[in-house]
Known about the structure:
The protein has 4 helices and 18 strands. By secondary structure, the chain is mainly β.
Amino acid sequence: MSQSYLWAPPAPVSLPVRGRPERAAVNRIFCVGRNYAAHAAEMGHQAVEKSGGDRPFYFIKSPQALAPSGATVPYPPGTKSFHHEMELVVVVGAAGFRVAAGEADRLVYGYACGLDMTRRDLQLAAREKGRPWDLGKDFENAAVVSEIFPAPGVILESGAIQLAVNGEIRQKSDLGKLIWGVREIIADLSLFYHLAPGDLIFTGTPEGVGPVNPGDRLDGAIEGVGTIALTIGPAEA
Length: 237
């Protein structure tokens, strides 16, 4: 007997995969905060000290926050400080719980370029009051992701990452500067969640984050992974 619903369930959320006709269904979107020392500094924080017992910290974006590369998205409501954050995205392709760092490669299906778009004023206001960041981080079109580059079992440890706004380079760094690398992130996150195929992990942004305005064009790239693009449209009336 088929199940009936009061209203239609949400449509599946998915991403294109380079070289394959199938799309990849998206499950959850995890994000690592302050994972480049220079970005932590520009946000007014000291870099974490692994030897001091620090560990990564996370926030989550809803699958409904996903937007495809190449989209034009409206300037979001409730903010006057809409910021870009260019990131490497890990695409999980196998289930795992309490995974050792040395075995993290078996969970990697591939990678993508991501833009963790942020309502910075709302994030900072919440931070100052010790409140959750949801209004600043989890909203429609806040997780922009490129097509997936399949690389099963491959752990990226270096590679140029950059973002330009209207042709001007804003962010430029290397994946080798991640405080917590791909193996460490997967191992740590799997202590708290049963990771599953379709989970996306935004690994953190380098320094150079800043505001964008209606009409701006964003173009990013990660060496060996691909490119991403976004246009900021006017605010909704």
